[in-house]
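Model it.
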Amino acid sequence: MINPNLHRQPVPLDTNQHRGVKLAVPITDWTLASKLNAVFVAVTEFSDTCKEFPIVFVKAGKDEQGNDEIAPIAVFGLVQEQNLYVAGTRWRAHYMPAVLRVYPFAIGRLDAERFAICLDMGFAGVGTEGQALFEADGKPTALLEDVRKNMEALEAEIQRTRLLGKKLLELGVLADMRFDATLPDGRSHTVDGFLTVDENKMQNLPDNVVGDLHRTGVLALIHHHWVSLGNMRRLVDWHVEREAAGKPAAPAVAANA
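Modeled.
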């Protein structure tokens, strides 16, 4: 999945065009993601993601039939183009979502059935030094073969995740999310524009529907989502820390002679 705040120059990989390209990987400088406010997470990531990031849902356009689609995302900041999980050059969380782990590669949709592996040519590690993508005869290197396998697995998980979104829309259990926080200086800060699974709506579902959600694993995913919302407080704390660090120090007061 291509995100303009991360993939600045994504192009489909081409054997001839990119035969001489090499990559300086693994990535150690994550300032490249410093403006990435949120990222898609697949359902298989929920159990790890919920421990460190808020998981919320956003509207993701329409499917081929014109039906609404939603997608789960991990939130990294409280304002636009803010990533509080990048500290200096390092990634400060233990877990890194799959979309970031496969960077500088991304999935580019060709149509509903096909996708292409894209490379972000804006990545500073693209050049003539590092690990090659293609052999001299044009065959993929072991690096690119691993990337292809990871991309195929991620694409399969994206499709599974779409099914979760359809189920939540079908059940009608989503609600607009609003998170209000009071900062230490008394200012208020509101985070909205997201969707969350409403607990009251879930409690009103028939027992047979809840039983089916449990058997299919959807209920566990919803609980991961609820648990993850506790991480909004972490974002507030880190937001305050960053604001304080960015303010100039107060001038010293001279002592009376």
